Amino acid sequence: MKGPGFFEADGRQMSKGAILLLMGPFFLLVFVAFLYPLGNLLSISVLEPTPTLANYERVFDNPIYATVLLRTFRIALLVSILSLVLSLPVAVLMANSRGPKAVLITACILLPFWSSVLVRTAAWAILLQRNGMVNGFLQAIGLTSEPLRLLYTQGAVVVAMTHVLMPFMVLPIYGALRNIPPAYNRAAAICGAGPLRTFWEVTLPLAMPGIIGGFILVFLTALGYFITPSLLGSPQEMMIATLISQQMRENLDWPFAAALVGVLTLIVTVITLIFSKVFQFDRMMGGRA
């Protein structure tokens, strides 16, 4: 008996040639817009003009670059955890809402996509400056007697990145919650489980694919984030993307910048493979073992 294949609307199975023809433009776009430029850039890191690994040795020999890498991972992890904590209640509310309420919540989540990251980051810079709204509010309620240094700090970077990346956490969790049959919650209630226990033992495990998917998406995106750390962070607390830009634009050291890109790409690939192996996404999403 043949396994499941790719079917047309009338139920007939498409040939492998037709599938390749349909997927061809996508693979061509990935090659032209991503694989070829990345491969060309990585080749610069080992050819100057003879083959060498000196640029990669610089990455690990100098403790400054290791510190930047560790800081990047710490900030990305903080942003991912904070996004998850803030996004889970919003996603649950979206999944349980209907009518105008659901439309309003969805609009609030999708509204940030209508403006650029640069605009949202600039808005945070205005809010967090010494004479901004946040400092004004803290002084008005008596928590501080003078303006605090909120801008150009790691906290400002974490808060702004969380705001920018939260939709990428909310939407996967919302999709997973919407796919849970309502009968499961009713069955748990019939068995005597309260709302909290039902959420913890029924809803949360079934929503885990969306939670893990959103967490990985936010974490990997935060690793290579550039605009927000550049505008809101300080030079003493730069992230890896800012360091790469500095090596390219200010130092004109393209081979070393390419080596940094290579290290970051390798780390992201390893993390993705580990997550895929540990959490077994094919089973979680209903695939075959």
Mean of residue pLDDT values: 85
Uncertain residue segments: 285-289
Number of distinct beta strands = 0
Give me the strand/helix succession: HHHHHHHHHHHHHH
| Total DSSP helices | 14
The total tally of domains equals 1
CATH superfamily membership = MetI-like
Helicity, in percent?
over 70%
Write a structural description.
- Residues 69-275 form the ABC transmembrane type-1 domain.
- The chain crosses the membrane at residues 20-39, 75-95, 102-127, 155-177, 206-227, 254-275.
- It is a multi-pass membrane protein.
- Belongs to the binding-protein-dependent transport system permease family. CysTW subfamily.
- It comes from Tianweitania sediminis.
- With 289 residues, the chain is mostly helical.
- It has a single domain, classed as MetI-like (MetI-like fold, Orthogonal Bundle).
- It is 74% helix and 0% strand.
- The protein has helices at residues 16-46, 54-61, 63-96, 99-110, 117-128, 133-140, 154-178, 182-190, 195-206, 208-223, 227-232, 240-249, 254-279, 281-284.
- Helix 1 (16-46) crosses helix 13 (254-279).
- The longest helix is centred in the N-terminal third of the chain and has 34 residues, at 63-96.
- The protein is globular, with a radius of gyration of 23 Å.
